[in-house]
Structures are given as structure tokens and as C-alpha cells.
Design brief:
The chain is an all-alpha fold. The protein folds into two domains: 185 residues, no CATH class; 156 residues. It is built from eleven helices and no strands.
């Protein structure tokens, strides 16, 4: 058994590896969505699904199953088996990376448990992470299942938002726990005021992440590929007439409005943090949110160049937009830990 300080560092680095792997998983999920690959595998086989189709007959059976859903019948009826194999790969890779994450969690967990790295107080939070991971996988399948029918062309944007934001919560919680084990290397600066501001910042960002998922699920970027106005209007009339959770232009308007609010709040947050004295990385969130806003604008403007079942400038912008959003969230979680009370 290692000393307490050594075991904490090992556990902290292990959890940081988990943060990295989960981040890659979300990136793979973005690629899967942008290439239209998410509905290519029509069954959920947590164990047997690790292997792809192994022969021509298996490939044809998988393709035939895909042909029964509306996405093939209404969007991809011209698909060849080679086209199907391309989209199948990304969904298969996304699911297999999830399986790899479970192995990277369970094997070290058992090893650390046997070797006495954990204290009794460590176990509940680690089991919580595992439970959320299992729940995330189940929500992911429910999301996919929502599009496996003759009528829908894509997965439910509501379930997509649930899946994505649950992943964001898992990444953030894993990062928070990791910081707790590595806190001897952190520059702690307890402040109730800055803690409250950071919580508010995260709250606004969390709502924005939900609407980002709505934008992705509804293909709402293509509904208004103009900036700064939305198809020539500051506030489109349809915003006042339609549901902000389902109508593309309404979703688009809310997402843009929240973006402006986030930038303004980010400037205020940075001003308040800067007033509090010297602190490393204090300008990181405002830098990230500025890059995020720019990428959002570019994503909207390049939306007409979206490549069906492929990859181009729009897909690059959309993927980077998502990646920077994750980095922004983690930067705020970091500062929330920095500002929390010494007992918190």
C-alpha cells in the first residue's frame, strides 16, 4: 500500500485520464452526429456489439436492418454498402470507445481497491461516477432508439440534449473529484462572491449547452445562415409564434441570445476576478468564450456548406465549437474549485 499522499496523486491522475477519455468520447459523438452515422447500428449489444460484422452476410444483414428506418428511406436511399460501412464505422467506434472507458475505469478501480489505495470515503463518489456512466450509456441507446422508425429522420433532439449534457456533467464531476486528489498543486483562493459568480456563469453555460444540443439535433444552423441578424431580423416574428423548444428559428434565436449573454457575463466575471488580485489562468475563460463565439458565428455562416454523410468546413467549425465549449466548462469548474470555501 502506498502512502496517502502518493495514492491521492495516483487516483487523481487516473481520474484525469478519465476526463481525457470522456472528452474524446464526446468528440467522437460529435463526429458521429455530423457524419449522419448515429442510426447506422440498429441494435444495442453492450458485449457482442464490440465486434463489427465479420463477413459479407453479416454486413448485408446490418445494412438491411438500416434500410427499414426512415433515415435510409427518405434521406439515404441511394446508399451503397460502401456508404453504409462508412457511417457504421463512426457509430461503432463511438460505442467501442465507451467500452474502452469502462475497462479503463473498472480494471484500475479493482487494482486500487485490492492494493489499498482507496479510503472508505473514496468509494461512494467513485461508484457515483460509474453509475452515471451506466446511465449515460442507457440514455444514449434511448436517444438512438428514438430515430429507429419509418417516420423520423434523426434522433430526438430532446434526448440528444439529455445525452450530451449528462456527458458534460460526468466529465465535470470527474474533473472535480480529480482536483480534490491533486489539490496540493492548486492555488486555492476561497471567495464566496467569486464562487457565486462562477456558479451563475456555469448555470448560464449549462442552459446554452442544452440549446447547443437542440441546434445540432434540429439542424437549426441551416435555418438561418446569417449574422448578426437572423435572416434579416433582430427578433424573428416566428420566435413569438412558436415553441422555443421545438421550432428551429426559435431555438436559433435563444442560442444566439444566450451567446451574447455569456460573452457579457464572461467580461464581468473576468473584471471581478481580476479585481481580487493575482491569480493564474484568470483570463482563460474569457479567451475560450471569445473563441467559442467566433466559432459559433463561423458555424452558422458555413452551414450551407454542410456535407451530407461527409466532412467539410462546416463540420470542422461545428466540431471545434463543441470542443471549445467543453474546455470552457472545465475551466469554470476549475475556478469553482479554486474559489470554494476551505471546508467545501
Amino acid at each position: 500500500m502506498k502512502s496517502t499522499s502518493e495514492s491521492k496523486i495516483v487516483i487523481g491522475k487516473w481520474l484525469m485520464l478519465g476526463v481525457a477519455m470522456l472528452t474524446i468520447q464526446v468528440i467522437l459523438g460529435g463526429i458521429t452526429r455530423l457524419t449522419g452515422s448515429g442510426l447506422s447500428i440498429t441494435e444495442w449489444e453492450p458485449i457482442l456489439g464490440a465486434l463489427p460484422p465479420m463477413n459479407d452476410m453479416d454486413w448485408q444483414n446490418a445494412f438491411d436492418a438500416y434500410k427499414k428506418i426512415g433515415q435510409f428511406q427518405q434521406l439515404n436511399a441511394d446508399f451503397t454498402l460502401a456508404d453504409f460501412k462508412f457511417i457504421y464505422f463512426w457509430e461503432w467506434f463511438h460505442r467501442n470507445w465507451a467500452r474502452l472507458i469502462s475497462v479503463a475505469f473498472l480494471v484500475p478501480f479493482v487494482y486500487f481497491l485490492v492494493k489499498g489505495y482507496f479510503r472508505l470515503s473514496d468509494l461512494p463518489k467513485l461508484l457515483i461516477l460509474f453509475a452515471i456512466g451506466v446511465l449515460l450509456a442507457m440514455v444514449g441507446w434511448l436517444m438512438v432508439f428514438s430515430g429507429l422508425n419509418p417516420d423520423d429522420l434523426y434522433v430526438s433532439h430532446i434526448k440528444l440534449a439529455m445525452h450530451f449534457n449528462l456527458a458534460m456533467f460526468l466529465i465535470s464531476l470527474t474533473f472535480w473529484f480529480a482536483l480534490g486528489y491533486l489539490k496540493t498543486n492548486l492555488e486555492l483562493k476561497p471567495s464566496k462572491k467569486l464562487k457565486g459568480l462562477t456558479i451563475a456563469f456555469i448555470g448560464i453555460l449549462a442552459i446554452q449547452l442544452i440549446y447547443g444540443a437542440f441546434m445540432a439535433g434540429q439542424k437549426a444552423a441551416q435555418a438561418a445562415s446569417t449574422w448578426p441578424l437572423i435572416n434579416g431580423d433582430l427578433i424573428p416574428q416566428s420566435v413569438l409564434e412558436h415553441n422555443i423548444f421545438y421550432h428551429n428559428i426559435s431555438i436559433h434565436f435563444v442560442h444566439r441570445t444566450l451567446a451574447f449573454l455569456l460573452v457579457l457575463f464572461g467580461i464581468y466575471w473576468t473584471w471581478q476576478v481580476n479585481k481580487s488580485g493575482k491569480l493564474k489562468r484568470k483570463f482563460l475563460p474569457i479567451i475560450l468564450i471569445s473563441v467559442q463565439a467566433l466559432l459559433g458565428i463561423l458555424t452558422v455562416l458555413t452551414a450551407p456548406k454542410a456535407v451530407k454523410n461527409g466532412w467539410g468546413i462546416f463540420e470542422w467549425n461545428a466540431q471545434l465549437h463543441q470542443l471549445v465549449a467543453m474546455c470552457l466548462l472545465l475551466s469554470l469548474v476549475y475556478f469553482l474549485y479554486i474559489f470554494k470555501s476551505k471546508k467545501g
